[in-house]
Amino acid sequence: MSRAEAIHADLRYSFPVDLGWRNFVFALRTGVAGIAALAISYWLDLQDPQWSILTVYLLAQPTTGAVLAKGAFRILGTLVGALWGLVALALYAEAPVPFVAAMVVWLGLCFYAAGRARNFVAYGFLLAGYSALLVGYEGAATPTTAWMIAVDRSAEIVVGIACSAAVSVLIMPRHAGEVLRTSLAATFSGLAYYGAAAMRPETPIASFVALRRRMVEAVIQFDALRSYTRFESSEMRVDDGALRRVRREFLSVLAVARGLFFRLEDFRKEEGSLVLEQVGPALHETAACLERIAADPGAVANPRRTRRELLAARRTLAAAADELGALVGRAPLDLLANGLLIIQRAGDMIHGLSMVMVAEEATLLATARGRRPRRWLRLAPSDHMGAVLQGLRAALALLVVSVFWAATAWPAGYWTIAGLAVMLMVLVNHEDPGRLGWPYLGAIVLALIAAYAAMVFVLPRLEGFESLALFLIVVLLPAGLLIGTPRFALVGAGFGAFFVAEIGTGNLFQPNPQAYMNNGLGLLIGMTICLLASIGLVPVNAAAVRRSAWAAMMRALPVAARGERSERAVAGDILAILGGLLLRLDLDKPDDETVLRGSLGAASTSMELWRLHDRQDDPAMPAPARVALSACLDRLTAAFTRLSEGRGRRSDIVADAEAAVSAAQAALAAISVEPGSPAAQVVLHAAASLRFVGDRFGIDRPFLLRSFASA
Amino acid sequence: MIPSLPSSLDTFDFFGFYLPAPMLWAAFALLPCALVCWGLRRVGFYRFVWHRALFDMALYVIILGSMILSEGSAWRL
Known about the structure:
heterodimer, A: mainly alpha, B: mainly alpha, two-stranded antiparallel ribbon
């Protein structure tokens, strides 16, 4: 690293805002888009031009795909919402009670749908609720101008969206697809290195834990980027199904590597050297292969070559597994089973990485053929109750503020509604409203103070649009830099949007301090009411979402134990449930860490249950072992079914399942088989699967007991 | 009506509902622009274009301007 690079790295480390040149470009082009939107709105003589520049800052996203996605759904949501506001006004302009009821129900439905839908489809539903409030409540004060309010508001928002999208594709565009490919390559290399670290005896635990955390965050970022790519241009659009498979394989590698590391550590400490001698060289060779792949910058660009290398590593592991089979009868079965389990888990990890390469080849082919993704609207499978609570929260908050407005006849009541609507949008789909909402509220307070100061001291001294544009660019540059730094994106967007909205960029510059204070106070009161209601009144229950996902995972395990679906299909289902939860998890919380670890463990357990079912039907399996395995699988099926249905005490059920596995292990250990025979191989494989399932009752006990949900 | 602007930019009266004409023209211009872009892509024209988004944007502005100006002339006739 050069001296300049070192200084730059130090600066970046000490200053939390991203000061890279890309972020400066992003901040400047966002400012340019805002000024262009303001200029067009002035030219079109729209009623409140500030809404267009506000839209630009609410829309600001560092990648092109995100802007197009957000913009498309925002336009649709705005038009539908404005239409509903007009319909409600047409029907109930003179009847406040049914009018408020219509708006409350609409808002509740929109926020429910936003809770069920994903990504920018959810954004469209949010905007439908938001626009309906703005048009409906502003129009309710002057019903005769409702049409013009709806048209102006829609036009201003559309101008903001168009400018934001145009600037982001014209000025140094950074396509989400390109960022995604870079992220895929980096995550793949990182996971290969992580897998190698899991197999290396010299890796310290602290380094491994830190590495794992980084890899989980990388997979979460990859998933967020994946959601943007579907809105790219046809050249950049990639097959979303293949990318979902990539995410699943990334998660499966994460699942396997951690277990492998700790199993190997225990194995090296406690168990005999005979098996380690057999296993060690194969693991060493596999780790070296993964390190080579991790260091190769062209590994993802050349998936066939990478797959060939991974296949060679799997062959080495398979040969080591065969050699272990020859030791049956000469070493304790449990020891051999553990050794085989290590080999198998390493093989599963390599298989996961190979599948990433298969999916990558598929996306390259799909891109070359210009194939489009098949499904773009997906409902979250396990989030019904969370969405209901979210809709209820929005509806109740609006009802409270509407009653307050009606009772006090406060002139700034509309701004209370606007503040409420904005805060509801900010808090949607977030389970910790305080953590997100208070800094956002702080940013709005700062924006209001800064806007007032600018209105009093700066705007009267400016002559013409050019000087106003220059002033706005200078002030909005820091806001743009904040938006481009993920940690501060919301705070930056809040400051930028409300600074320009409140500074008085209307068609006529008429500063009115009393009205400003009144409206600002109304805005903040609406936001605070919404925030307090979210924290205390109807919190979206994070534990309920996790419980629902947990039950769905428990329901999947008996399917694997009965062999109804293939091993990777059931594991894929569990990982898909985890994928839905991924963006909600906060790994600083021990409970969320338990959920992540337990979910990854459940995916691996499903694979081992399926393998057990498969092996009990193997003709080479001795009859007593088959009977023991069959009984064990039946008891495990019953136990996981009871857990998912909530029948009986969970600790008793888990103890029963643990006893079933122990009984089967004892039965297998008591069977004598000829070393190296097919029977010895199949018994050893069954013992390895049993060992894995049995270990989960210790490692993932808090998850199986669902004790994370009580916190 | 602003005399310096084409008459096609006058506010549009749709059965008593007033709509901003520039927004309508901007929306109408999307269709021919999309068709032209599609045709150019089919014939491989974009191989010769340095900045596709810039080209598309310029094309859109030309089509929008042509529609507004030509329609304005037609109305005056």
